[in-house]
Amino acid sequence: MRSNLWPIGFLLGLSAAAPIYGESDVPPAPNGIELPAGYKNWRVIGISHRTDNQSLRVILGNDRAIEAARAGDTNPWPKGTVLAKIVLKDAKHAAWPAATVPGKFVHAEFMIKDPEKYEDTGGWGYARWVGEDQIPYGKSEHFDQECFGCHTPRKENDYVFTQPIPFP
Amino acid sequence: MRSNLWPIGFLLGLSAAAPIYGESDVPPAPNGIELPAGYKNWRVIGISHRTDNQSLRVILGNDRAIEAARAGDTNPWPKGTVLAKIVLKDAKHAAWPAATVPGKFVHAEFMIKDPEKYEDTGGWGYARWVGEDQIPYGKSEHFDQECFGCHTPRKENDYVFTQPIPFP
User: Fold this and answer.
1) Is there a contact between B99 and A49 if contact means CB atoms under 8 Å apart?
2) How confident is the model at residue B6, as a pLDDT?
3) Counting C-beta atoms within 10 Å of the first and last residue's C-beta, which end of chain A has fewer, N or C?
4) CB pairs < 8 Å spanning A and B
5) Residues A32-90 pLDDT 10s
6) Minimum CA–CA partner of A88 in chain B
């Protein structure tokens, strides 16, 4: 699978020495998508707090995504965009009870834009790795239909919930 | 003022072509601190949601800060650390009412670690720029006593409220 994804790395202008897919010891998702290496170093696009499942989220993007977000060019997002959502369980700040801060790491999930490759799921490839052990989510290769289903109400926004931070 | 801060840039291993202080059209804070250039491109350290003033926050750090956060070396944070807190007014997600997402940009505020230079305020220099127009906060050079006062209850944590995200 990794070799199939190399062309995306080159499209994004990354060198062969820095593959964007594949963390050595983390298995791929059941649909073949590999954990994007170095996603923790990506820049921030958005944040959110969901009170329905008590979680804080920070949404990071690869260079293509950041460029698009800052240019307001996000409907549709360009091919090569990768969005990473990091989800953390709510915790209360010990010294500031009115502040919700990151507790346990819940999961990291990704949307990878490639209209041809991921035509069956709205042009986005979906994958998620759960917990500190980064266990791939999903029991079969079709697990991503669940992701796609939840994102379908946002079809008019290229299936994306995230609203980029309005930086000055 | 800018020339006084250049040595910090060199300590951080940044090239002379990429000054970390000074955005051309933004005035410095009343205590002389200049807006760290390019802070929007820094990596993420933490997030929080304050229900007492209805705001979401994302905390970014310069390279020195990120290194320290990932190594768990944050009490004290090393000299040269710069923390940037971006504060956004709460908004409700139009398509997901239980999600709080970034509304209006409130301000960006900074803590700059230099135990000698900022001895009077616990080893940290403080500055804030308000709103989309990035207006420097504070009426006199002593405005930072207000920042210091609010951070003093966290003295045992090197005056920092932010709890780094527990990335896998």
Assistant:
1) yes
2) 43
3) N
4) 125
5) 999 999 999 999 999 999 999 999 999 999 999 999 999 999 999 999 999 999 999 99
6) B165
Q: What DSSP assignment string belongs to A68-82?
A: HHHHT--TTPPTT-E
Give B17 or A98, the one with higher predicted confidence. Answer: A98
Whose CA is closest to A23, among A12, A8, A34?
A: A34
**The tokens of B106 are what?**
């409130």
Complete domains list, chain B, with CATH: 39-157 (3.50.70.20)
In tens, the pLDDT along A118-133 reads 999 999 999 999 999 9
Q: Cis bond leading into B76, ω under 30°? A: yes
**Predicted-complex ipTM score:** 0.86
Chain B interface includes A23 (CB < 8 A): no
Average pLDDT over residues A23-36: 91
The Cα A35–Cα A24 span in angstroms is 9
Please state, as a whole number, how many other Cβ atoms lie within 10 Å of the Cβ of residue B29.
23
What was the pLDDT predicted at A150? 95
CB proximity A25 to B under 8 Å: no
pLDDT-derived band at B164, boundaries 50, 70, 90: very high
How far is residue A40's CA from residue A72's CA, in Å, rounded to a whole number?
23
Nearest CA to CA, how far is B12 from chain A (Å)? Answer: 18
Cis peptide before B28 (omega within 30 of 0): no
With CB atoms and an 8 Å threshold, state whether A161 touches B134. no
**Contact at CB, B168 and A58, closer than 8 angstroms:** no
Predicted confidence at residue A25, as pLDDT, reads: 87
- Contact flag A168-B134 (C-beta cutoff 8 Å): yes
B5 touches chain A (CB under 8 A): no
Task: Report DSSP letters for B24-74, one per residue.
Answer: TTSPPPTTSPPPBTTGGGSEEEEEEEETTTTEEEEEEE-HHHHHHHHHT--
